[in-house]
Every structure is written in structure tokens, then in C-alpha cells.
Amino acid sequence: MDDALRVVVEMNETIWGRLKNALEDLSAEEIHWRPLPQANSINVIIRHLRIEAQWHLDSLESGAPLPTIAAPAPQAPIDAVPANFEENLKTLEELYTRFVKILRTATLASLQQQTASAYGEAMGLPYLLSYHQSAHLAMHCGQIQMIRNLYRKTRGEPARFFRENPTYQK
User: Domain spanning 3-153 has what CATH number?
Assistant: First the structure.
């Protein structure tokens, strides 16, 4: 592995582990629960992550323009992804594992080239592709933890995440 990319690989592996932890012991009701009717459920979030993980992988593998940033989002493939939590989580894990495997063999030069192709005119940081995927996953991991905490609190149970942190008021 390119030593210059070691921290990026570790960052992606760490956030993947945190997402897996956030999804442990989910009940069927929790998967589909929404704090408000217009809010996202965990099922919706995992489907979203699965779709975007494919886009990030395609960009890393071939430099394909990243939909919603450098190209329009293709609606037909989006619509083809079912709202099946188990299937989407399994596919997400496969895609994310492949993404990290490619990062392990990448060089800074190849990553910069793929990022330039993926982001086109929207490119900011020269290695954004390697950070964007993990930052995106981290944001939604926090969202899932919040949904799970709210789910438990609405049932009179203690929060699953951050329950012993003294910085939160009671």
C-alpha cells in the first residue's frame, strides 16, 4: 500500500466498522421507522448509500463522472434498486469493500487522476474521491445512530449511542 494513502484507507475502514456497529441488532420495525412521516428511515438511508457506493466505486475504478456532481444522476438505475434492506446492505458492503481494496493499491497520482475525471469542473481537493466516500458514510452513520436513539427514547428505553456521555444534558 502506498504509505501516503494509508490514513485514507484506515479512515475508510474505520468508518465502515462504525456503520456496521450502528446497524447491529436492528429490529424490522427499526429498519422502517421514521421519526416523522417525511423523514428518512434506516432502510431509505442504506438504499441511498448503496446507490452512491456504486457511483463512487465506478469513479475510482474508471474515472466515471460522479452523478449529481459532475454528471446528471441516471434515474433508471436508481429506480431499479429495490427498498430491500438486507439486499442493499449486502451490496453496500461488497461495493465498499471493493472501494477500499482499490484504494489500497492506488497511488497518489492515480487517485488524483481518477478524482479529476470523477469530479470534472467541481473538483476541489486533489484527492477528494478518497475522502468523499468516507465523509458521506460518516454523515449517514450519525443519522442512523440518531434515528436509533430516537426510536428507543420514544419507547422509554435508554439511547443506544452516547448514553453515558456527560456532555449531553438530561
Answer: 1.20.120.450
